[in-house]
Each structure stands twice: as structure tokens, then as C-alpha cells.
Amino acid sequence: MEQVRSYMQSGELYAYSASADTDQVAGVVLAIPVEQDTVELKAVAVDRQLQGRGIGKLMLQRVLEDIRASGVKRVLVGTANAGIGQLAFYQKAGFRLLRIERDFFSPERGYPENMEDNGIRLRDMVWMDLVYPTAT
């Protein structure tokens, strides 16, 4: 998709193996700096055949630990309004709802008309963030 191509060469790409004894990539996360002390997660994905095994949870946990250790104070992530599993996944990881960008998934932005997930039309981008507490 054109949108992914536009940002896949920026930021830091994290890739995770399915196990210690294989080079098979199980999942990836792309972390892109968007402003001072803020990173956006894009392309958070686990191989379909390996989903449901806790790989995504572990992968996200490791990425967030690395990002926090680098001094980042806030992590953003956006997902579709119809991404019920993704919305739950990020909230379980500590993300909170931030805002909704209406009509994000539109033909004007290069998305096909009438995309669906879980029987729900993809229309809006739901933005979430995770803010790390500052030391006092």
C-alpha cells in the first residue's frame, strides 16, 4: 500500500524471531519519531500463522521498554475504528484513547472505498497514546 511505502524507510524497525533457533521473522514494529520526546508506532504486525501465541504482546513490551530507555516520553499509535482486537491489544498494553480522526480511511487518502473489518466499515483513525511518568 502506498501509505506504508511512504514511511517504511524512516524510524527504527524492530523485527522479532519466532524462536531463538530460527531466523523466521515473527513480527515487526516500526517506531518513527514525530516530535521531541514522542514516537509513533507504525506497522505493528505479527505473521498471521503465529498470531494468538503472545508474540505480539511480548514484541510490543520489548519495543516499549527500548523506547522508554532511549528517553522517549510519549508513544502514539493509530488504528482503525473497526480494529476491535487492536483497540483491546493497545489498551491492555497501557495505551489510552486520545482522539478520533474522522474519515481517515478515504479514497482521497488512497484507501479503497468500503473497507471492512469485523463487519464494521473502516472510516476513522482512533489515536491512542502511552505517556511515561516523569521522575520527580
TrEMBL record:
This is GNAT family N-acetyltransferase. PROSITE patterns: GNAT. Coiled coil: none annotated. Keywords: Transferase. Residues 1-133 form the N-acetyltransferase domain. InterPro entries: Acyl_CoA_acyltransferase, GNAT_dom, NAT_camello-type. Pfam families: Acetyltransf_1 (PF00583). It comes from Steroidobacter gossypii. The lineage of its organism: Bacteria, Pseudomonadati, Pseudomonadota, Gammaproteobacteria, Steroidobacterales.
